[in-house]
Amino acid sequence: MDATASILDAARRADSSSARPEAPIQFGFGPIRHTRLRPVRHAFSYAGCFIRLRIDGTHAREHAQSLGPWFAFNATAPLSFQDRDHGDGQTPLAEWARARCAEAGLQADGPIWLHTFARHLGYAFKPVSFWFCHRSDNALVAVIAEVNNTFGERHCYLLAEPDGSRLREGHDLHARKVFHVSPFCAVEGSYTFRFMNRPDRAIARIDHHDEQGPLLLTSLSGELHAADRRSARRALFGQPLFTLGVIVRIHWHALLLWRARVRFYRKPDPPRAVITRGQP
To answer: Where are the domains of the chain?
Structure first.
């Protein structure tokens, strides 16, 4: 069992209400890990930088004003967050998330946190972002995993209990894979998601299984720091081309898999539905 899995297993007994950081914007610093198990083993890990924002109300927008020239909310800055990068690109984010939850019969009238990548020097590619949707009593009732591929397409997996009850920390959540991401993986099988959110640390783990068993193991984790000018400078100058590096690494590792003669799958048409409902 790796370190990420050990932490997640220990977190299963925790109450999710303890998981919400207090500052409406945090920067997270930690590793991004990816392991392919078949037909050749291919693994890599690199330092990551992400942000978590409370997107309901004006919490994040007001906090961003204290970060000086380094970070901006829906404006130009070396580091920035843009509403248009998420949801349908037009509807206010909290409104969009609550509408998707309501369509699934879920009450998400409390805080909504978004775990994603910032724009670095105006550029962003966001392979996956996570929306954590809570009830007014702070119970986590849904996670929306928002996936983008390199073809400019987007699909979301909505993860929730069938009865809308609170999601347990570290609990396995499942969704059938319906969206093309990598040309070296067929659009088949399922995902297993696990999340841990604490005031000082966040972990998201995604495992892809096909009919033969586990195929891909992926995790994004990091220590959380309340956003201030110091942490914003660390995010910018520590990895000034981070989001550009994400897309470069995707293509570099695709080349390595192609050279290893891993089977190549042509891109199918995207699913008609914007959201796929997962299962516990």
So the answer is: 3-277
